[in-house]
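U., I forgot to send this yesterday:
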Amino acid sequence: MHGLVSLLEEKYYKEVESIWQMLEGKCGLSGIKATPFPHFSWLIASDFDWEALETVLEEIAQKTRPFIVNTSGIGIFSGASPVIFIPIIRTQELNILHQHIWEAIQPCGEGISPYYSPKNWVPHITLAQTDLTQENISCAMQKLAFQNFNWEIKVDNISFIQQDNEMTGQQQHQYKFQGK
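Result:
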């Protein structure tokens, strides 16, 4: 799967990397290394018309001003393959941009995940995924539950991460928001 994401600003990028290192060292969790860029995702898809995607992302970046998102607490996507994350609080501004991205990408994306549709999207920053088990999830939650995740993050880019066949994701392009 490939993802359209916003990479976190440097302060929180480093903070998330530090959390990942702590979870690996203390709890043995290293599954996050499959996509080793602190970010939140706008959508994921199985494939893109890469040339058309670049054009769409350039247009989005030219029209979008940097903005602030806030986070709060810790969340878990439960199920057979749980994910621990920091939720991003949805705002009208965030929802409008997400809707625009969702609609603009439809013509050039294949296999776009419905979990990222405007009605289902849960914006978040992933802290642990793919290797969480019943045995190690409590370690992770004990390490995270008493930390403050009330962050204010400046969002100033849209990027895409290409991840083919279970390989480590690679950042392909980053477009800085330039809107006035």
